[in-house]
């Protein structure tokens, strides 16, 4: 039996006995042992498989440029990141923008505003729409990343990725959503249009906030694996799968307001299945990246 056929046999066996992903975890561990981490291979792995929770923060930090590819630099770089974090936090406390009682996600927002030169003159100033997006993502990230320094840096770089790398792509996602929903279930899209709901769907929640506040973090992190590693298009297929999953409910609603309200507060117990099906749908329409360890 060749090495590839042995591996395929083991993978099938592991899946049958409930150890799906054992081979993938080993493959990732091999990639993470390299002296110089191959970011391209890590991206490809993240596109194909969910990241094991024990390695997620590390992989995200490397892919978002918080850590360099070289292992020996990680400790020193994170020491600098922590010093910068503490300096900015201290400055905000000195000017009384935050205190020990300030919610952590709001602290991250004020730090981000200060570092990007957008700190308002007073904490009482109303938040801009972009601040609300940052806050939603930071709140979700808090549930995924335990260390506050890691959480701030990952949130900051994640938001920067949305604002730079995906800046031109994100406004195109509603159109792509309609396109793929039409391919999967044209009747459902027709119903949305007849109710005048299509333009009023919660696109900001889905695409600008990347489902933060819509899906529970345990499901959301599998979607964000794909966003961090290079694909914002996964968001389209999560939205499509939400509509397909709740088709009967949506078809029974006959006003744009009712449909939008329901989609903003979908039942949480279906989220894992929705994300799994969305990833399958994404691979079906966009192909599966080839990963070689």
From TrEMBL:
Residues 50-231 form the Rab-GAP TBC domain. One of its GO terms (molecular function) is GTPase activator activity. Component of the TSC-TBC complex (also named Rhebulator complex), composed of 2 molecules of TSC1, 2 molecules of TSC2 and 1 molecule of TBC1D7. Interacts with TSC1 (via C-terminal half of the coiled-coil domain). One of its GO terms (biological process) is negative regulation of TORC1 signaling. Non-catalytic component of the TSC-TBC complex, a multiprotein complex that acts as a negative regulator of the canonical mTORC1 complex, an evolutionarily conserved central nutrient sensor that stimulates anabolic reactions and macromolecule biosynthesis to promote cellular biomass generation and growth. The TSC-TBC complex acts as a GTPase-activating protein (GAP) for the small GTPase RHEB, a direct activator of the protein kinase activity of mTORC1. One of its GO terms (cellular component) is cytoplasmic vesicle. Its main location: cytoplasm. The gene is TBC1D7. Keywords: Cytoplasm, Cytoplasmic vesicle, GTPase activation, Lysosome, Membrane. The keyword DNA-binding does not apply. InterPro entries: Rab-GAP-TBC_dom, Rab-GAP_TBC_sf, TBC1D7, TBC1D7_dom2. It holds the Pfam family RabGAP-TBC. It is found in: Cytoplasm, Cytosol; Cytoplasmic vesicle; Lysosome membrane. This is TBC1 domain family member 7.
